[in-house]
Amino acid sequence: MKANAEKIEKNTVLLEIEIDAESFSQAVDKAFRRLVKKVNVPGFRKGKAPRQIFERMMGKGVIIEEAMESVVPDAYYKAVEDTGIEPIDQPKIDIVQAEEGQPVIFKATVQVKPEVTLGQYKGLEVSKHPVDVPEEEVDRSLERLQNRHAKLLTMEEGTVEKGDTAVIDFLGKVDGVPFKGGEGKEYSLEIGSGSFIPGFEDQLVGQKVGETRDIFVTFPENYQAEELAGKDATFTVTVNTIKRKETVALDDEFAKDVSEFDTLEELRADIANKLKENAESQAKYGLRQEIVNKVVDNAEVEIPDVMVENQLRDMMGNFERRLATQGMTLDSYLQFAKTTRADFEESMRPDAIWSAKSNLVMEAIAKQENIEPTAEEIDAEAAKIAQYLNQDLEQFKAAVESKGQIDYIKDQIVREKTLQFLVDNAVIIEGASGEPAWEVIESKEEFREPAGDTKEPAGDTNEPASE
User: Fold this and answer.
1) Across-strand partners of 173?
2) What whole-number distance in Å separates Cα of residue 250 and Cα of residue 231?
3) Residue 161 zone, left/alpha/beta (φ > 0; ψ -120 to 50; rest)
4) How far apart are the first and last CA of the chain?
5) Distances (CA, A) of 283 to 126, 363, 419, 420
6) Which residue numbers in the chain have pLDDT < 50?
7) pLDDT by residue (tens digit) across 247-270?
8) Which among 359, 350, 351, 353 is positioned nearest to 292, based on CA atoms?
9) Do 14 and 109 form a contact (C-beta atoms < 8 A)?
10) Can you give the pLDDT at residue 434?
């Protein structure tokens, strides 16, 4: 097989590929043997008809077409490998010659990764924020832990207070007429959570157990149920019971109950350490992000539309998978957010463009600096992933190699090494202390990864009284 690559315009390459006559004749023979087993030829058992008879009935072109469907893709991928081009889209194939006994000649026009013109990426000045964990943050974390382990007492009498969970029956009306979804029985509502429309929860404060009262509210103008948006409504609400948190004292007994520690002092020190570790992780993340932002801004590259669309498709897929972990579908999220799929994708397009450019720039730096993964690094990363997935290492490695996924592991290693290379070659300036960005989950649990700016829904609700 012969292949020649010619750049015909920006980011587009023309491959001229030739398959020798002997290889094509062998492919035609194989194609005939496959086809004759599928076709009933009168007078012959299936698969036993001579080729001349088969061709007379079906036409020689059917066999040629079958052979081409086999040899063209293989020859194209071999040509891509031999010429070293990096396609970013499916090729457009034009057959020049396809006759048995003659070489097959075809052309493949395909878009390839654009060239990157790197700007300054070494010696960049970046700020590193000092890690500072104030005592007040430790106090707040302990308080959250205390509230999380508070007992919930059911009160058969008393009045609703902020922070209580009121178990209520309600019936909503607009202009004296009940509306769909405006009725609930034994509904648990945390007062102060803001889960119902503005004004609803505040008016429950002071209501006694067993008391029924009317609550007057106005639906927001942008309410999801358009027929209720901006309308005045009256809810008749009965408080059945009240559930109130009772916190336990912050002492050594509390520490023993909620952690592996024997004293409150040890628990407090553990929380402080976790906060510091998370703050350090945030500082490292912020430092790297600042460097990448500058490196990407300094580089020049035109991103083809197909790369943006591919990146956008990947981002949408990741977003849908995250929604699924919360029990939501994309359609329900779009309804919740009052937007369409097209508008939502368009809002993500700037991020998709930046991500595509960032990936290209990081790849270009890795090539420029000859950054590659070692066999030891690949084995270590594979072992880490296998352990996380609770799989046997050798079986995991065999699986990823058979599926061609080893390149993904290599790419991850190269990106990490490239990031570290940029950090090692940056001029780091101690900056001012920034806002802390940590969250304690539980004393025994790990901290969550730094969250981005995208806000995702905590769930969906069909209650018209909820917001």
Assistant:
1) 178, 234
2) 47
3) beta
4) 65
5) 12, 24, 14, 14
6) 432-467
7) 888 889 989 988 999 999 999 999
8) 359
9) yes
10) 44
d(CA 194, CA 466): 8
Establish if 253 belongs to a structural domain. Answer: no
DSSP string, 5-41: EEEEETTEEEEEEEE-HHHHHHHHHHHHHHHHTTS--
Specify whether the CB–CB gap between 104 and 24 falls below 8 A: yes
269: part of which helix (H) or strand (E)?
A: helix 264-298
> How many CB atoms within 10 Å of residue 155?
13
Count, in order, helices (H) and strands (E) of the chain: 13, 11
Residue type, 441: I
404 token code pair: 């061609």
Same domain for 422 and 351, yes or no, is yes
- Cβ count near 363 (within 10 Å): 18
What's the angle, vertex CA 50, arms to CA 46 and CA 52, rounded to 5? 130
Amino acid 124: pLDDT: 92
DSSP 8-state secondary structure symbol assigned to residue 180: E
> Can you name the residues that pair with 117 across neighbouring β-strands?
300
Q: Are residues 164 and 201 in the same domain?
A: yes
Give domain status of residue 10, yes or no: yes
The label of the residue with tokens 């402080």 reads 272
- Alpha helices (runs of H) in 161-236, residue ranges in sequence order: 200-204
Is 104 in contact with 98 (CB distance < 8 Å)? Answer: yes
One-letter amino acid for residue 71 of the chain: V
* Per-residue pLDDT tens digits for 121-168: 999 998 887 788 889 999 999 988 988 888 888 887 889 999 889 999
Instruction: Report how far residue 85's alpha carbon sits from residue 62's, in angstroms, rounded to the nearest whole number.
Output: 32
Q: Is there a contact between 425 and 125 (Cβ–Cβ < 8 Å)?
A: no
Quote the domain boundaries for residue 231.
151-246
CATH number for the domain spanning 212: value is 3.10.50.40
Q: 190 and 339 in one domain?
A: no
